[in-house]
Amino acid sequence: MVNGEQIQPAPIRLLLVDDEEGYVSVLSKRMTKRGMLVTFALSGGEAIRTLRKQDFDVVILDLKMEDMDGIEVLKIIKKMIPELPVVMLTGHGSEKAAREGLTHGAYDYLTKPCELEDLLKKIREACGR
Fold it and tell me: Which residues contact 127 (CB under 8 A, 6 or more apart)?
């Protein structure tokens, strides 16, 4: 509290990286309604260009994308901003690849489709909130 007023924490700045446009659109709307500042990238290359221009608190990164593999994107993110937490999203049957992401510095992974509350909880954990 400052001067008797409760200070609201700054909204979480989230970069959502997935090449499924419909999924990204729905998920970003749902997260924005929960007070997050969501930016999305529909490819790995777009994500890296976005990270060069903006600061984020956490990245949600799909493992399977057309242009670049999620692990490849993760490695680049970790070279650029080592402390930035990255949560991998993976389809069923790709848990082995997601675990590989953990060895390259991912914070954690969730299997798609995941419950929104599980994803929100993981985002807050990754941001230390």
Answer: 12, 57, 58, 85
The answer to whether 50 touches 15, Cβ cutoff 8 Å, is yes
Domain boundaries, the chain: 13-116
Residue 62 Cα distances to 5, 8, 9, 89, 112, angstroms: 39, 30, 27, 5, 9
> Which region, left, alpha or beta, applies to residue 3 given φ > 0 means left and ψ of -120 to 50 means alpha?
left
Instruction: Give mean pLDDT, residues 6-23.
Output: 90
Q: Model confidence over 44-80: pLDDT tens digits? A: 999 999 999 999 999 999 998 888 889 999 999 999 9
Residue type, 114: C
Which is the CATH superfamily of the domain at 13-116? Answer: Response regulator (3.40.50.2300)
Please tell me the total number of residues recorded for the chain in this structure: 129
What's the rounded Cα separation, in Å, for the pair 129 and 69? Answer: 29
Q: Tell me the sheet residues that pair with 17.
A: 41, 61
Contacts 24+ apart (CB under 8 A), 49-53: 50/15, 51/15, 51/77, 51/80, 51/81, 51/84, 52/80
